[in-house]
């Protein structure tokens, strides 16, 4: 995105500027430099929307954080404008000195009373907003459903509890939530510290080995979002993310029912090879193989957005790449390379996995 | 018996207000922490808030008293700072003025520390 912005809007005027006009005047030179820099200034704006932006909230907690940000920024800008205004006043051309009494009053009101009042107001506002940003959900009745999420290098183990006759089940790297219903998370880490953060839905919560943290979110909009690991956890930290799909409650229930029931067997060659080559020793696929749980569960893998916990798009080609050498795609991944398998077998397994819809 | 302490010239009175601020801060945070650790998760802070509210009022009163004494030591604002002559009187006035400013700072700080008492109703699990 960075490169596109520069070449589309910046490169041509720059080249023209460099060719001969800079020497003709300071103003033109400055303008050329501004034209060169301007597209770069626009780049941060790309962070204002999208699937992973706290500035485009889709949940109650994120909306609270966004509101807090706006109030703080507007408050800061007003104070800054007042200070700059004073500065201009002090630097004005026709100076008439203030009397000592006037200056003393300015210091008392502008330097003491005003900052104290503004800081007290902003502090009170922020503290007042805290229960919105981090709800005290344990006081609520009925208790929201507790989804267990465990951070592991470099993927996310997600366990949905049993509810309404549906058994509990495990999935990985993709979280589905019903819109308009509060959910709670029980957050753990298997190896090092990770951090659970869905920017569009709410604030961060660390996942610490040997400790269970809780957090709660209320999604308000349907959509597909991205959630990165927010605490450096090793070589592939930047490649550790999960997708969040917020659905209508009816669709969500249907999805849960299907997940809990499992894939069933497909009888394909890829399925046979999945078991034959030992994939099933680490990865579970409900309804097909014994529930192994060393690696990410792969039930209905074809429905997921990504391969390798937010690393690549979910296509047969990318799954093939990942199976052949996970470490090349995701440095430090615990899964060993399977490049000794015949290419046709890997392709068949990839085909099978992507077909699990 | 005197209601207001006699005027004394000592460096120690300078620290009265910041000391009250520090004690108030520790009282608030330690009491709330112990209450929440011993109570069930998400227990209400009700009584604790009330007690800490009274502690806050007492702290503010103490700081106000310290400010009054400092104001008196400063000669009720009869002279202007900087009070930098090498005389006994200027030293007294300077110390009074510094104590008054520190009292103001501590008063505001105690208010800021007490803000969560108003808005936070329960322990966070």
UniProtKB/TrEMBL annotation, chain B:
Q: Keywords for this entry?
A: Membrane, Transmembrane, Transmembrane helix
Tell me what this protein is called: Transmembrane protein
Q: Which domain of life is it from?
A: Bacteria
Transmembrane region(s): 12-34, 46-71, 92-120
Instruction: Give the species this sequence originates from.
Output: Shinella curvata
């Amino acid at each position: 995105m960075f490169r596109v912005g520069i070449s589309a809007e910046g490169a041509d005027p720059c080249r023209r500027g460099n060719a001969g006009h800079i020497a003709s005047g300071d103003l033109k030179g400055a303008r050329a430099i501004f034209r060169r820099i301007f597209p770069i200034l626009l780049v941060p704006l790309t962070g204002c929307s999208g699937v992973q932006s706290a500035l485009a909230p889709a949940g109650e907690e994120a909306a609270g954080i966004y509101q807090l940000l706006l109030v703080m920024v507007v408050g800061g800008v007003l104070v800054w404008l007042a200070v700059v205004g004073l500065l201009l006043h002090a630097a004005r051309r026709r100076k008439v000195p203030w009397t000592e009494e006037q200056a003393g009053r300015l210091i008392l009101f502008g330097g003491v009373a005003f900052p104290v009042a503004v800081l007290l107001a902003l502090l009170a506002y922020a503290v007042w907003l805290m229960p919105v940003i981090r709800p005290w959900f344990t006081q609520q009745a009925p208790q929201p459903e507790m989804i267990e999420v465990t951070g592991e290098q470099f993927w996310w183990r997600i366990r949905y509890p049993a509810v309404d006759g549906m058994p509990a089940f495990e999935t990985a790297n993709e979280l589905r939530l019903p819109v308009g219903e509060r959910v709670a998370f029980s957050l753990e880490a298997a190896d090092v510290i990770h951090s659970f953060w869905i920017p569009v839905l709410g604030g961060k919560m660390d996942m610490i080995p040997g400790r269970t943290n809780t957090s709660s979110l209320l999604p308000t909009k349907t959509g597909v979002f991205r959630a990165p690991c927010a605490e450096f956890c090793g070589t592939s930290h930047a490649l550790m993310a999960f997708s969040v799909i917020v659905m209508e409650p009816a669709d969500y229930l249907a999805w849960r029912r299907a997940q809990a029931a499992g894939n069933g067997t497909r009888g394909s060659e890829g399925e046979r090879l999945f078991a034959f080559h030992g994939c099933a020793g680490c990865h579970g696929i409900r309804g097909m193989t014994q529930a192994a749980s060393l690696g990410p569960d792969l039930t209905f893998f074809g429905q997921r957005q990504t391969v390798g916990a937010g690393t690549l798009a979910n296509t047969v080609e990318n799954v093939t790449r990942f199976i052949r050498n996970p470490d090349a795609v995701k440095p430090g991944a615990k899964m060993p390379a399977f490049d000794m398998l015949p290419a046709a077998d890997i392709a068949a397994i990839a085909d099978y996995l992507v077909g699990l819809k | 018996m005197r209601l207001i302490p006699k005027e004394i010239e000592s460096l120690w009175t300078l620290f009265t207000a910041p000391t009250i601020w520090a004690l108030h801060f520790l009282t608030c945070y330690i009491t709330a922490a112990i209450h929440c650790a011993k109570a069930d998760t998400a227990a209400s802070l009700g009584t604790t808030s009330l007690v800490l509210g009274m502690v806050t009022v007492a702290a503010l009163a103490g700081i106000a008293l310290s400010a009054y004494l400092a104001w008196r030591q400063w000669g009720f604002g009869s002279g202007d700072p900087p009070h930098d002559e090498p005389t006994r009187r200027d030293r007294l006035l300077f110390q009074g003025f510094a104590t008054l400013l520190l009292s103001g700072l501590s008063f505001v700080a105690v208010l800021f520390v007490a803000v969560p008492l108003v808005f936070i109703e329960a322990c966070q699990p």
